[in-house]
Amino acid sequence: MSDIPVIDLSKAPGERAAWDRPAWVVYLWAVCELLFVTNPWQISSGLRVRILRAFGAQIGADVVFRPRTRVKFPWKLEVGDRSWIGEGVWFHNQDRISVGHDVVISQETFLTTGSHAHRRDMALITRPIVIEAGVWLTSRCIVLGGTRVGRSAVVSPGSVIRGILAAGGLFGGNPVRDLGWRFPSAPNVARESMGYQS
Questions:
Q1: Of the residues 25, 79, 105, 149, which has the maximum number of CB atoms within 10 A of its CB?
Q2: pTM across the whole model
Q3: How far is residue 24's CA from residue 38's CA, in Å, rounded to a whole number?
Q4: Assigned domain for 117 exists
Q5: What is the pLDDT of residues 32-66, one digit of tens each?
Q6: Kind and range of the H or E element at 192?
Q7: How many domains are there within the chain?
Q8: Residue 77 falls inside a structural domain
Q9: What is the Cα–Cα distance from 151 to 163, expressed in whole angstroms?
């Protein structure tokens, strides 16, 4: 097995390329995140939102952020009005994450925009995530970079989401698959026309 190569991680391109802010801002955010956002105490959701906004997050009106939330880079996060962010949700956003209005992201869901060029040099590769209005990502979902979840779609617990999910659909599994419609009376729009990929 000695002929199988091993990538020297000391030579892998660093993640600082994704920071988009001076090091002191990133370190100050790490302290504020720990004290006010990730903190498990039931302190004010409004305080969490104010701290996130102070570091550049675009957060709409009446958004609820529960305790133990993590946000890698708040300046790459957008959350629309009236959305609910559940306890323990982790926005690992080395690229932009855009969350529409009236979205529910349930507890322990993990959204990650970054991965690595695993066949070459382990360089960081990032792709944005878009969660459209009215979506419900139930507990402990994993959302991978490059994903777009269509308007008012629902994804069942523990699903691994990659690609494009059609508006109004029910999805679940690993890999995620089409389980039907959230609103059976909704117009029967062809999934292929929405760009759905399983």
A1: 149
A2: 0.85
A3: 19
A4: yes
A5: 999 989 888 877 899 999 999 999 999 999 999 99
A6: helix 191-194
A7: 1
A8: yes
A9: 14
Higher pLDDT, 43 or 168: 168
Q: Which residue has the higher pLDDT, 196 or 172?
A: 172
Token pair, residue 47, equals 């305080």
Q: What is the pLDDT of residues 130-162, one digit of tens each?
A: 999 999 999 999 999 999 999 999 999 999 999
Q: What CATH number does the domain containing 168 carry?
A: 2.160.10.10
Residue 189 predicted with pLDDT over 60: no
Question: 57: closest CA among 15, 88, 85?
Answer: 85
Q: From residue 3, how far is each of 6, 11, 12, 99, 118 by CA, in Å?
A: 9, 20, 21, 46, 17
In the block, which residue shows the tokens 């988009």?
A: 20
Within a domain: residue 181? no
In a domain, 5, yes or no: no
User: What is the Cα–Cα distance from 166 to 170, expressed in whole angstroms?
Assistant: 9
Size of the chain in residues = 198
Q: Give CA–CA dist 81/83, Å, rounded.
A: 6
The parent domain of residue 153 ranges over 19-176
